[in-house]
Structures are given as C-alpha cells and as structure tokens.
Amino acid sequence: MPRRGEKPQSARVSGDRLGALLDAAVDPIVLIDTRGRITGLNRAAAAVFGYNEAEVLGQNVAMLMPAPYREEHDAYLARYMDTARPRIIGIGREVVARRKDGSTFPIDLSVGEFLSGEERGFVGILRDITLRKQQEAEIRKTSEELRLIFENTPTAITITDVDGHVLDANRACQALLECNVAELKGGRHTDLVMEEDREAVRAEFVALRETGNRFSREVRYRTRDGHVLYAMLHAGVARDAGGEALLMICEIVDRSQLFEATREAEELRTRLAHVSRLGTLGEMVSGIAHEVNQPLTAIANYASAARRLVLSGDTDAEELASINDKIAVQAERAGQVIRGLRSMTRRREAVRESLDCSALIGEVSKLIEFELRARGWRLLISLEPKLPEVLGDGVQIQQVLLNLVRNAIEAMNERASDDFVTITASALGSAWVEISVSDSGPGLAQEVEERLFEPFFSTKTQGMGLGLSICKSIMSVHGGELRYRRNLHGGAEFIMRLPAVGI
Predict the structure, then answer these.
(1) Which of 290, 312, 327, 424 is a Cys-bridge partner for 382, taking CB atoms 3.0 to 4.6 Å apart?
(2) Global pTM?
(3) Nearest to 371 by CA among 289, 451, 256, 302
(4) CATH assignment of 14-132?
(5) How many CA atoms, within 13 angstroms, populate the side-chain half-sphere of residue 245?
(6) What is the pLDDT of residue 4?
(7) What is the pLDDT of the chain when averaged over all its residues?
C-alpha cells in the first residue's frame, strides 16, 4: 500500500511515461488546465521560451503571449468553457509567441482538449515558423520585384501558356500595340502578328515548346489603329525542374525606326549609285558617241547604196537583201549600245532577281571595249562554263563592274606594263560566284590600299572619292563583298564576290 500523499505505483509509472513522451517530442508542447494555468511543458518548449518548468508551472499561459493575445486569451477560454464553441481548439492557427527575454516569434499553434478521469485540460503543440515566414517574405519580395521589373521594363513583353495564349502583358506591350491587357489575355500571341507572318511564327512556337531552343525573328505586328509595326520577336520557354514546359516569354523589340532609317539609307544609296552611274557614263560620252556613230554612218552608207541601186533600174533582189541585212546588223549594234545606256542611266527602284553573270559581263563589255580599243588595249574575258546565277539588281552589279574596269583603264593611263584588262568569273563551289577585274597598271601604294574604300578618299585630282565606297556598299547590300589585292603583274585586282541563288 502506498503511504499517505504518495501516488500509486501505476500512477507514477504513467506520469513518468507521459513526461518521457512529452520530452521526446520535437515540437514544443504546453499543457494547461481549464483556467489557463500551465500544468506542464516539455524540454522543447522550455528551450524555445527560455523558461524552466518551475518558473511556469501554475502561471497563466498568457505569460507566453505578447499583447494583444495576452489580454484576449482568458476571455476566449472562458467563452469556450461556457459555450463549448471553439475558436482555435481543434483547428489551429498562426499566432505570435513571447520568450522570457521579451522577444516574439511567429508560431503555428494547434490546441486540443483532453479528459482523463476527472481531470480536464488542453494541450498546445507549437511550431516555430520564423524561417518559413522569412522565406515567405523573401518570396513576396522577389515576386514583387519581378512584378515591378515586368511592368516597368521598357521592352514590350508577353507571357503565354505553352499553347501561345497570352496570360499577361506589361505596360510597354500595351502601349506598343495600343491595347490594354484585358484585350490581350486569352488570345493567341500569333493573332497579334500580321496574317502573312502568322504561319512562320506558329511553327517557331511549336518548335520552342518541343525543343526549348530560343528563337529570334523579324515579325510584323498590326496595332489597333491598323498601323504596321516592324519588330524583332525574341521568345524563350520556362520549364519546371522535371523539364516540363510551363510558360513562354516573348519580347517584342520595336524596329520601326530602324526599318525606316534603313529604308531611307537604301533610298539614299540608290540615289548615290544613280548619280555615280551618270558620272561614269558622262566621262565615257565621247567614246560612246563614237561607238554609236560608227553603225549609224554604216547604215547611212548602206541606205545610200540601196537607193542608188534602185534608181539605176538595175535592181538585184539578192543584192538589196544583202544590203538590208547589213543595215539590220548595224542597227542592232547601235541598239545594243543605246539599250545599255538606257538601262544604266534609268533611275528605278532596286530589284532582286536571278541574274546570269555571263550575260551581265557581256553587256558591260559592249559599253567598255570601244574605249579600250581607242587606246590600243585589249579586254580579255574568261568565264567559267555554267556559272551559278546570283540574286540581285543587275544594273547595280553592272555599275560596280563598269566602275572597276574604268578604274583599271585610268590606272593604265598612268603607266602600263602590258596592254590588257582581264575580267574573269568563276564559281566557288555552289555557294559563291567570284568576278575579278585585273589591270596592267602600276598597282596601289600601301597607304592607299588601307584607305581605298573610305568615302571621299581619292587619289584623283578631280575625283570625289565615292566610287569605290558606293561599289562596296552595293556589294554589301547584295550579301557579298568587294576586295582588293595586287595581281601577279604588279597591277591592281578587284574581286567581287556574290552569293549564288539558293544559299
């Protein structure tokens, strides 16, 4: 039998077991009675709050709470005891706890009620959520920063789902496309693109979703008022940790001003090229007049012969036919020169078409060979059979070739080691066509070579220094290049390289 005041053995064992279980718990646990007085706490609770068990036993649990929870707690407990309607018992909620040193920290509090014989009380299980709150605050801060960056970035951005439906658009995008985000949400990004570009953009989006490779392409958009917007579209995909596509992010860079500036620059370049052609042909006018005058004189002579033959009454049909054939040949010869001049002098919009390089070289040679003949020089042409066609403006390419040949003639006027100018054309695989103009002149000094293609640099006393600069610009626009090197004879050689059709 236990002595008076002693607990039975079984009660002591049960109490010891309960204490051991409480102390084994990782989370802080506090026990209180129906009046809110602390009847026990485990080691984790003592460590968190900074109290030992003797300091808190019998004290109101409100000591572990800061204001205003401290003042409200007793009323909550009394209300529950009177009405049995719980506020947090059996539910749990986030509250703030107070340590012995007065510092506070957030906790996740779960409260349960227990009955053991005649004893009734409550058990509170606490979890310090300071770290979680800090992480949530960091996430909120990061999210807000990202939102502010997204909204205020000067570049237009849309966020779409993996099927291309717009989920959000920033202010810059709304301003650029002249619509609000409500009008954009739910619609496909490709619906904002001009119809002619949609299929290509759809294909890019499908490939982006499947491969994850970013893409960039020039795209035309149409704003609300119908204005065409030239832009560069950059798009990438965001994936989760498992590699699954979540979102697509599209950046729209307005290139309208650049497009307009490029268009104006192209128009100016075309004008300069036209002026340059006129200047070149103006310098050739005496030779051209002589070249045209020869067939015209021949035509007049043949016509006079035919007239005399008819007036003589001794008409021979075969002889008349022969005279007419000669007139036709001379007329065609003059016509070729005139047609070449008209083509070269006519101002027109730049065109892009497939061109036969052999034919282009042949037409230029007809304009230039009489000037060479007048000086007693030869034009040697070496064309590789079956040259690939090139894509470009035939008149502008001929202008470059004509300019290079005339430069060769002027160089040989200074000093010539031989009597020929050579034009060669060959294919570099299937990708390029190379046309070179080589002369028998003295070549160029090193300091001249270094500045050869600079605008307004010229070695001629009357030159403006725009010829070679314009020629290089024309080749660049055609996706090609123009280079200089000294040839085997010590003269100058200029190489035109143009991309073949299809590369």
Answers:
(1) 424
(2) 0.47
(3) 289
(4) 3.30.450.20
(5) 21
(6) 47
(7) 80
Asked if residues 276 and 470 have their Cβ atoms less than 8 Å apart, the reply is yes
Write down the CATH number for the domain with range 153-254.
3.30.450.20
Instruction: Report which of 353, 333, 470, 488 is spatially closest to residue 403, judged by C-alpha positions.
Output: 470
Handedness of CA 73, 79, 81, 83 (dihedral sign): negative
**pLDDT for 63 beyond 80:** yes
Of residues 421, 423, 427, the one with CA closest to residue 384: 427
Contacts of 102 (CB under 8 A, 6+ apart): none
CA 334 from chain centre, in angstroms, equals: 52
In the chain, pLDDT over 90 holds for what percent of residues? 23
CA distances from 227 to 169, 178, 196 (A): 20, 10, 15
Q: What average pLDDT score do residues 173-190 get?
A: 87
Q: Return the percent helix, strand and coil in the chain, to nearest 5.
A: 50, 25, 25
**Residue ranges, CATH 3.30.565.10, the chain:** 264-499
Hey, what are 67's tokens? Answer: 């204001």
Alpha-carbon distance of 232 to 219, in angstroms, equals 6
pLDDT at 252: 92
Cβ contacts of residue 285 below 8 Å, gap of 6+? none
Is residue 290 very low, low, confident or very high in pLDDT (cuts 50, 70, 90)?
Answer: low
Cα separation, 254 vs 176, whole angstroms: 8
**Cis before residue 455, ω within 30 degrees of 0?**
no
Neighbour order of strands in the sheet with 215-222: 166-169, 156-160, 245-254, 228-239, 215-222
- The helix/strand count (H/E) of the chain reads as 15, 17
Region 77-89: mean pLDDT is: 71
Question: Which overall architecture, per CATH, does domain 264-499 show?
Answer: 2-Layer Sandwich (3.30)
pLDDT of residue 102: 92
Give the end-to-end CA distance of the chain in Å, rounded to a whole number: 107
